[in-house]
Specification:
59% helix; Ribosomal RNA-processing protein 12; disordered C terminus
Length: 1260
């Protein structure tokens, strides 16, 4: 609690020198209070601040005259209220409750006086928010407290935005945290009554009254404020009051204010959604009336925003109605559908989108009884069932010109219908209602999809994808054949290759369909590909290759809890030896098809394991379709039993594939191996383990015996050793205790941990760490440490990270009576904090912290058994604690090398940060004083670490501990304030900024001794003030987005290396970059008819393919480029090569090339690093390059010529110059004009509007 109040007050203290009165007054008062604490030897705590501020407030009120206390920015009462609002959240709740009468008697009478002063009023409201949060149920009935809360409630309608926002936040926070064990706050009922009264008054045209600058506001403005307050508070109100609030909200649209109507509908939508999520919110009795009122007051069609809100609330009402009473709700579906369907005719995209979403919600209201009735009358011509009427109306809309612009929304409605007609009427073997009712509509959509003029192919693909997911590919492809083979193409059938990417999603079709339908199809396609390649038709071969790949990409979709994994399906089993052999061959020989096959094998196992477990958490990770329509647990268990019989053969295949693929692809194979090894029999796991160990021994011996030159020529034994180790890591979690112990002993040898192959070492340490963490092995920590210490000489740098992980795991297993082992690990861990690899450094820090936690847990350190302890030293057992451990670590400060001293300082920094609550103040002071001395070291590596510790100490250690040392800190730091090497100047500046924020300008400045040193601090302060002024003067957006601080991902790294420098911010733009999407002109320009002069247009059929939403203004029209040129007397176009606009362009080009000329020409020069001028050498090569540049870039030379002076250079190239005859005299010219154009008209037309240079080939 003390740290919290200190963190809050530390942001106020530095403002004593502020030029703003409302900042300076609280800071000055705070300084005075703290000075009083020091005089009276009072510990500054939240309680002490609270009591002192109440006393100060009492004195200020008593000294004020009859006119009341002054409320100016520099006066005492606003400053006291500001500090109270900052301190009270940190005060213990019992203290607030015991001082409640005093607090109320002093502050509650101030509401009337504060109403005209917004800043102190906000402080008062914040104060009451903290007080109310700390009270028990019995305290809430204290006289005056309820009245004060109602006063704050009135301020939620205040015309001042900040006051209104603060009051609304306090009311919401209070109601959201009721005193235990109450579910609702006692004040919630009063708030609900006030809201109902305010809504009633607004609906009747009255004007709510409230305290504030103005006596009142207009009714509509007050209503807007009320609705903005009501939205977040609604879930905290009593459930019995929601129905009456709903009735009052429905009256607001009648006022004719569009914004009020939209807000009311939006809040109603939130309320209805709340009734679905919270069972205590009961609106069932009002649903029928609510639906009737909403249907009876539709907005005008021209109001897009209101129509969208009305559609949303109507859809949510039907959902809530269905949740409350499904049988009554389904009777209203047809009526509501008609009301919403008319909105699809709107010209506003927002309205159509909201209507489509509401219609999608309406599909969720279908009941099994209604669906069964629709299926029974599916063959009748005249639809009577509401579902069949809806399907018929939707189908007709695809051909209607009225709904042409709403085709995407209609398709989304079709997707919703398919989704909600997944009903199977009992058994999973029965067909879905969507299959029986929606296939004709699906066929129509597929026919639209293949038309070249249909623009909504993505929406159509989404609808077809929904059909594939619900009905399954077997049903969809029966109605919509792929038509991909040569026979289909010869018969003129339209191919539907766009269906293939849709197969990859989870669906209900059995795996047997893929085996019986797609496998033979891919075989025929592969034969066609082979034939095309043999005959040299590479493009055709590529087409067949892509189709085969797309088909196999759909295999995983068949494997999600498939029902026929074991049973027969058609002519063959789904996972027979023949199909398994085919999959194995694909894994070995088809790298492009390997990923889908691997995904299928993994999904096959994982989905059945999740379904068989019955674990809700595992099932929740499965796709929605699998969760909604799953196989039974018994079927899933049978599938797992069947897969277990094939685990041995599949593991052998996967092991071979794992060794044959590259490192980039091994992770994917490893995931499949982990999935299959998890369901394998323990005996099979043991057999696989022994095979891998035997192979590992062989490869390890072979790699050891092969000399380096021959190893490069033959097969890589080292690589096979690494592959075997990776496989052992994969099966490690499933090993028995005996096998795990044997593997531990095998790896804990010099052959593995001192191998010349870095990969073998890394995996050896990683495996050992996993074995120790698994707990399957019984090990002697002392023996392990001794073995590891003997193997440190051959340690590779790449294996240090994993070695640290292993040491960390072993440290956690050290018995409390064997803590004398820790000192032997400390030097290696400390030096590890200086490793170049970030991961190795982090692992070393983890090891240091793990040893600290082990020592903090207690135990005994037997000093006589500590390695290196001399006999003369007192062999007294020491009690293990964090301070004893810090003493061990601090021994490194006496190291012989600067590197060791620097590493020790870094390790101490981490321990101080991690155990700051456990280390005593005396130890913290001793550590700080010791390391502060090192800041004055002559070695930069030591100074760098010491500066990092000082920076961390200022951020972490208590201010009372550091304040006495300010006179030493400031001069020591100022010594490095002008040193640029190692970024010391920037580091010191950042540290001073933290000091200034923590202790204030006066205290820090007083410690600077020399005038030059004081100038450094003055400069920092000036730059800081400049940054504040720049931020204050920057244009403020309505909703400011705070700049995100760059974090390193670790709290210690953020404190030690992160910079909170405000001066860095002053050099950059403070305004955050807004990733605003560019506005597109004509985004909703509406749909138009596509004109085709070659055929008449039928507006009665297929209108969806006759409509375009493309911007006609951007379409290129015939003759558009030719219209830019004039015609001669003979009617021929005249293309003038010259243009008056080219002259200034050439001049600009010369001016723009001046810098380049100064660097490249013979007359130019350059400047060296020291600023010396170096003239370019006049070489033949440079002159030749200059001549060539003059020949090519003629426009520059011509533009730069002086008037009346003839140029000896070549003339500008003419358009079509490259087509001109080389030996002939040229074409016949009339009046000096070429009769033909030798370039595209579009290029010539562009030339008329810009003066760009043309190259020698007439190209730009």
């Amino acid at each position: 609690m003390a740290d919290n109040v200190e963190a809050v007050l530390s942001k106020i203290r530095p403002h004593t020198s502020s030029a703003l009165a409302h900042q300076k007054a609280p800071a000055t008062l705070l300084r005075a209070i703290e000075a009083t604490f020091r005089e009276q030897n009072t510990e500054p705590s939240a309680t002490a601040y609270f009591a002192t501020l109440l006393t100060t407030l009492d004195g200020a009120l008593q000294s004020s005259g009859a006119s009341g206390p002054a409320m100016g920015e520099a006066d005492v009462v606003p400053a006291v209220l500001y500090l109270l609002a900052a301190v009270v959240p940190c005060v213990p709740h019992p203290v607030i409750r015991s001082n409640l009468p005093t607090t109320l008697s002093l502050t509650s009478p101030l509401f009337s006086a504060l109403s005209a002063f917004a800043p102190p009023l906000r402080s008062q409201i914040t104060l009451y928010g903290a007080v109310l949060h700390a009270l028990d149920r019995s305290d809430l009935d204290v006289q005056g407290l309820r009245q004060a809360f109602m006063t704050i409630l009135q301020f939620t309608l205040d015309p001042r935005p900040k006051v209104r926002k603060k009051a609304a936040e306090v009311v919401k926070d209070v109601l959201s945290a009721p005193p235990l064990p109450m579910a609702k706050h006692p004040y919630a009922e009063k708030v609900a009554e006030w809201v109902k009264a305010a809504l009633t008054e607004i609906s009747s045209g009255g004007i709510p009254k409230f305290k504030g600058k103005k006596a009142d506001t207009e009714g509509s403005e007050a209503a807007v404020h009320l609705l903005a307050f009501l939205r977040p508070v609604l879930p905290t109100l009593p459930t019995e009051s929601l129905s009456s609030i709903t009735s009052s909200l429905l009256l607001l649209p009648r006022l004719g204010n569009p914004y009020l109507s939209q807000s009311a509908y939006s809040i109603l939508s939130d309320l209805l959604t709340l009734s679905l999520d919270d069972p205590t919110v009961d609106l069932a009795s009002h649903m029928s009336e609510l639906l009737k009122v909403i249907l009876s007051s539709p907005p005008i069609k021209s109001d897009a925003a209101l129509n969208a809100a009305w559609a949303t609330v109507l859809g949510n009402t039907m959902l809530a109605y269905h949740h409350a009473n499904a049988d009554e709700c389904v009777l209203q579906v047809n009526k509501v559908w008609k009301a919403l369907w008319n909105l699809l005719e709107s010209s506003e995209a927002a309205t159509r989108k909201a209507a489509g979403q509401a219609l999608a919600n309406l599909g969720k209201c279908f009941t099994p009884t209604t669906i069964k009735a629709a299926v029974k009358e599916k063959d009748s011509e005249e639809p009577k069932n509401p579902i069949r009427k809806i399907i018929f109306q939707t189908s007709a809309a695809l051909d209607s010109l009225t709904y042409a612009r709403a085709i995407p929304d209609v398709l989304s409605v079709v997707s919703s219908l398919i989704e909600n007609l997944r009903f199977r009427n009992g058994s999973r073997k029965n067909s879905t209602a969507a299959e029986q009712l929606m296939l004709p509509l699906l066929t129509k959509i597929a026919d639209l999809r293949v038309q070249k003029t249909f623009e909504h192919k993505e929406a159509a693909d989404a609808t077809l994808g929904t059909a594939v997911r619900i009905m399954g590919p077997e049903v969809v492809l029966r109605a919509l054949p792929l038509n991909l083979e040569t026979v289909d193409r010869q018969a003129g059938r339209e191919p539907r290759a766009y269906l293939l990417p849709l197969l990859a999603q989870p669906h209900s079709s059995p795996l047997g369909h893929f085996v019986n339908y797609f496998v033979p199809l891919t075989e025929r396609m592969f034969d066609l590909q082979t034939t095309a390649e043999a005959e040299g038709r590479q493009s055709e071969a590529k087409v067949w290759s892509v189709l085969v790949e797309q088909i196999w990409m759909g295999l995983p979709g068949y494997c999600w809890g498939t029902v026929d994994l074991k049973q027969a399906s058609g002519r063959s089993f789904s996972l027979t030896a023949q199909f398994s052999q085919l999959l194995s061959q694909l894994l070995y020989g088809q790298p492009t098809l390997r990923p889908p096959v691997l995904r299928a094998l993994k999904i096959m196992v994982d989905s059945n394991v999740a379904l068989a477990s019955g674990d809700a958490a595992k099932i929740a990770k499965l796709p929605q379709h699998v969760r909604v329509d799953p196989i039974s647990e018994t079927e899933a268990e049978a599938n797992i039993a069947f897969l277990r019989t094939q685990a041995e053969s599949w593991l052998a295949v996967l092991f071979n594939v794992f060794g044959s693929v590259g490192r980039d692809n091994q992770a994917m194979v490893g995931d499949v191996v982990s999935a299959w090894i998890a369901i394998a029999d323990p005996k099979e796991v043991t057999q696989a383990y022994h095979k891998l160990v035997t192979l590992f021994d062989q490869n390890l011996s072979r790699a050891k015996n092969i000399s380096a030159p021959s190893a490069n020529k033959g097969p890589s034994a080292d690589s096979m050793t690494v592959v075997t180790q990776d496989l052992l890591l994969l099966i490690l979690p499933y090993l028995s205790s005996e096998d795990a112990t044997a593997l531990l002993n095998l790896y804990l040898t010099t052959e593995v941990l001192e191998s010349r192959d870095n990969g073998v070492q890394k995996r050896g340490y990683k495996t050992l760490a996993r074995l120790v963490e698994s707990g399957k092995t019984q090990l002697d920590a002392a023996a392990v440490f001794k073995t590891l210490e003997s193997l440190v000489d051959g340690l590779a740098a790449a294996a240090k990270k994993d070695r640290f992980h292993l040491l960390t795991a072993v440290v956690r297993l050290i018995p409390s009576e064997s803590l004398h082992l820790i000192p032997s690990v400390i030097p290696e861990a400390v030096l590890g904090t200086k490793e170049p690899s970030e991961k190795a450094r982090n692992a070393a820090f983890d090891l240091i912290v793990a040893m600290g936690k082990k020592m903090s847990a207690g135990g005994v350190v037997k000093r006589d058994q500590v390695e290196g302890m001399e006999e003369d030293d007192a062999p007294v057992d020491a009690t293990a604690n964090i301070e004893e451990y810090m003493t061990m670590i601090a021994g490194g400060l006496a190291g012989a090398s600067p590197h060791m001293i620097s590493a020790t300082v870094t390790a101490i920094s981490r321990l101080v940060f991690e155990f700051r609550e456990s280390i005593s103040s005396a130890m913290q002071t001793e550590i700080f004083v010791t390391i502060l001395v090192l800041v004055g070291s002559a070695n930069r590596e030591i100074v760098k670490s010491a500066l990092g510790f000082v920076k961390l100490a200022i951020h972490t250690l208590p201010a009372e501990l550091l304040r006495p040392h300010l006179k030493d800190i400031v001069p020591t730091l100022l010594r490095w304030s002008h040193d640029h090497k190692n970024h010391f100047k920037a580091k010191v500046r950042h540290i001073f900024e933290r000091l200034l924020r923590r202790f204030g300008w006066e205290d820090v400045y007083a410690c600077a001794q020399e005038e030059e040193a004081r100038g450094v601090l003055v400069n920092i302060k000036k730059r800081k003030d400049r940054a504040k002024r720049k931020r204050a003067n920057a244009p403020q957006e309505e909703d400011d987005v705070p700049k995100a601080k760059a974090v390193a991902g670790d709290a210690f790294e953020d404190v030690l290396y992160g910079s909170e420098s405000e001066l860095d911010d002053s050099d950059d733009d403070d305004a955050p970059a807004q990733n605003a999407a560019p506005k597109r002109k004509g985004k909703d320009a509406g749909a138009r008819l596509r004109i085709d002069d070659d055929e008449p247009m039928d507006l009665l059929s297929g209108a969806a393919s006759r409509v375009t939403t493309a911007n006609a203004g951007k379409r290129r029209k015939p003759g558009q480029d030719a219209a830019r040129f004039k015609d001669d007397d003979a009617g021929k176009m005249v293309i003038d090569d010259g243009s008056d606009e080219e002259a200034p362009a050439g001049a600009d080009a010369v001016a723009g090339d001046a810098y380049r000329e100064s660097l490249t020409s013979v007359d130019g020069f350059t400047r060296g690093p020291n600023g010396k001028v170096k003239f370019n050498k006049d070489t033949k090569k440079r002159r030749r390059e200059a001549d060539e540049a003059e020949d090519v870039e003629m426009a520059d030379a011509d533009a730069g010529q002086k008037a009346g002076k003839k140029s000896k250079k070549k003339a500008d190239p003419k358009f079509g110059h490259e087509f001109k005859a080389k030996k002939a005299g040229g074409d016949v010219k009339k009046n000096g004009v070429d009769p033909y154009a030798y370039m595209p008209l579009s290029q010539a037309a562009k030339k008329q509007n810009r003066g760009s240079r043309v190259g020698i080939a007439g190209k730009r």
